[in-house]
Amino acid sequence: MLAQSIPLNVLAKHRKDLLQIEALLFGQAGFLDGDIKEAYPLQLQKEYDYLQKKYKLTPIPVHLWKFLRMRPANFPTVRIAQFAALIHRSVHLFSKLIETASIKEITPLLDVTASEYWKTHFRFDEVQKTPSDKHLGTSSIHNIIINTITPVKFLYAQSQGTATQQEAALQLLESIPAEKNKILTLWNDTGWLSESAAQSQALIQLYNNYCSSKRCLECSIGLSILKQPV
């Protein structure tokens, strides 16, 4: 919703100015409404007021963002700041991602750190006790590759009619460790262990399309289990 609320050409036009990119993103996310105390967010608020009027932007409701039961490093504010850093330093990111063929090449493109303000904050106007760089960790980068970059690379290759590039996109999943979540824990408990993200994605797909809907009789795995002698 945040991405859809800002025209791509507006982000591209202001990409070189990190302050303006953060103002656009945090403003459109609804985080710059209301009373703000600290100097930097006040600066963002002032910048956003100007940009909002200039481009006639409508922010999304701030209550849509979730903080409850989340680790501070995963707070939406931190992720938005990292996204701003990615936009600020990226030039022709799409073409670079399409051209890359390995995790080793993709990782540096996504290895960003949020701006200086976020070194001492997880949220606006709340100073954290111990400063820390807010950079994307390996697991976060892998998550982006699995859920965003691989599908985009595959669909682009498909639209271009290049089967080898489609296969190369899928091979990315083979080189990433399996994910860890509640669904995969259920599979692990039954003895189905994933050795790569390709396998974990397959198990998640099976669970969402068959297990959770109790379509055991339509699933070859479910049928094989049911046919086993008691």
Task: Write a structural description.
The structure is a single chain. Helices cover 56% and strands 2% of the residues. With 230 residues, the protein is an all-alpha fold. It has a two-stranded antiparallel sheet with strand order 1-2.
What's the SSE blueprint?
Elements: H1 8-13, H2 18-28, H3 39-55, H4 76-89, H5 93-99, H6 103-110, E1 121-123, E2 126-127, H7 138-160, H8 163-174, H9 182-189, H10 197-211, H11 220-227
Antiparallel strand pairs: 1-2
Helix pairs in contact: 2-3, 2-4, 6-7, 7-8
Please report which band the strand proportion falls in: under 5%, 5-15%, 15-25%, 25-35%, 35-45% or over 45%. under 5%
Give the distance, in angstroms, between the N- and C-terminal Cα atoms. Answer: 50 Å
The helix/strand class is mainly alpha
Q: Helix-strand pattern, N to C? A: HHHHHHEEHHHHH
Q: Give the number of DSSP strands.
A: 2
Overall morphology: globular
- What is the mean pLDDT? 94
How many helix segments?
11
State Rg: 21 Å
The neighbouring-strand order within the major sheet is 1-2
Show unreliable segments. Answer: none
Oligomer state of the chains in this structure: single chain
Helix content: 55-70%
Largest sheet: 2 strands, antiparallel
What key phrases describe this protein's structure?
2 strands; 11 helices; mainly alpha; 230 residues
Question: What does this entry show, briefly?
Answer:
This protein is mostly helical. It is built from 11 helices and 2 strands; from the N terminus they run H-H-H-H-H-H-E-E-H-H-H-H-H. The chain has a two-stranded antiparallel ribbon.
